[in-house]
From TrEMBL:
Keywords: Isomerase. GO terms for molecular function: isomerase activity. It comes from Caproicibacterium amylolyticum. InterPro entries: Phenazine_PhzF-like. NCBIfam families: PhzF_family, PRK10281.1. The active site is at residue 47. This is PhzF family isomerase. Gene3D superfamilies: Diaminopimelate Epimerase, Chain A, domain 1. Belongs to the PhzF family. One of its GO terms (cellular component) is cytoplasm. It holds the Pfam family PhzC-PhzF.
Length: 299
């Protein structure tokens, strides 16, 4: 009989049953990929993180990320959740952990303050992919029930990645954002054509406490809608700097993003973009978390 320490953690929130839930298995070293997939399906969250502690290597832990239907290279909220659960279980102090993921070896900072933790995830290489136009853009707008006039002017609809790519789609109306009812099958078919499985629709609120409000759809990997997405808001920060939509005169750009409101699971992400010569150089996302429950799985 094998025993596994399993957590359900709500990330990018300090309130239980809000934010983005992730499954976490802390001692996953002897699990097969097939077993991980089955456990992720059982959790049925958008992602479940499986931690494999490492010794004698240039990194501290390997993390595998599974949706209910497939493995993905990296996940923002599941990274926050995984290191939060590990910090609580091991009673860690402030420290830096190096994790090996499908997006490379990346640092994660665990900040211990007032008896709780905040997690800072450094994301992977910033990559700007194709701009969607022509038939692909038409298919996307039809799937989202949007028109060209709904889009933000001079905000290209573009694939951007910091380890797990998303399509950036800026729209003008926050009320429209919360009313979106996309054709998921059409989005899934388009993902196969453009080789990108996530669609991040966002609005800008320069007067509010959160600059960005967004929704993310990824039906091609079994996620109809993700509540709060680190690997959407991180690349969005790089996108905003790259296109000069924010003040790029300093060495960094900081903002908050609010997501999950349409799903009644609101959460907030802090994003930091390091700037070099007016271009994004590195992206970090920051968030709190809360443990919804802890249990043991016997196999």
């Amino acid at each position: 009989m094998r025993k596994y320490s399993c957590y359900q953690v709500d990330a990018f929130t300090n309130e239980k049953l809000a934010g983005n839930p992730a499954g976490v298995v802390l001692n996953a070293g002897d699990l097969t990929a097939e077993e991980m997939q089955k456990i992720a399906r059982e959790f049925n969250n958008s992602e479940t993180a499986f931690l494999v502690p490492e010794c004698g290597k240039p990194y501290d832990v390997t993390i595998h990320y599974f949706t209910p239907t497939k493995e993905v290279p990296i996940c923002g909220h599941a990274t926050i959740a995984a290191h939060y659960a590990a910090a609580v279980e091991n009673q860690l102090d402030t420290c830096r952990i190096f994790q090996k993921t499908g997006a490379g070896v990346l640092p994660v900072d665990i900040i211990h303050h007032n008896g709780d933790y905040r997690i800072v995830m450094t994301q992977g290489k910033i990559e700007f992919g194709p701009v969607l136009d022509g038939k692909n853009l038409e298919k996307l707008l039809a799937a989202l029930h949007l028109s060209q006039s709904d889009l933000l002017k001079d905000y290209p609809v573009q694939i951007v990645s910091t380890g797990h790519s998303k399509v950036m789609i800026g729209i003008r109306d926050s009320a429209l954002l919360n009313c979106l009812q996309p054709q998921l099958q059409a989005l899934e078919e388009l993902s196969g054509m453009i080789q990108c499985n996530g669609y991040y629709v966002f609005t800008i609120d320069e007067a509010g406490s959160s600059l960005i409000h967004g929704r993310m759809f990824a039906p091609a990997i079994g996620i109809a809608e993700d509540p709060v997405t680190g690997n959407a808001n991180g690349p969005l920060g790089a996108y905003l700097v790259h296109y000069g939509k924010v003040d790029c005169s300093g060495s960094e750009f900081l903002f908050q993003a609010r997501q999950g409101e349409a799903m009644h699971r609101p959460g907030t992400i802090g994003v930091r973009v390091s700037i070099e010569n007016g271009e994004p150089a590195c992206v970090q996302v920051t968030g709190g978390a809360v443990i919804a429950f802890h249990t043991e799985l016997l196999l």
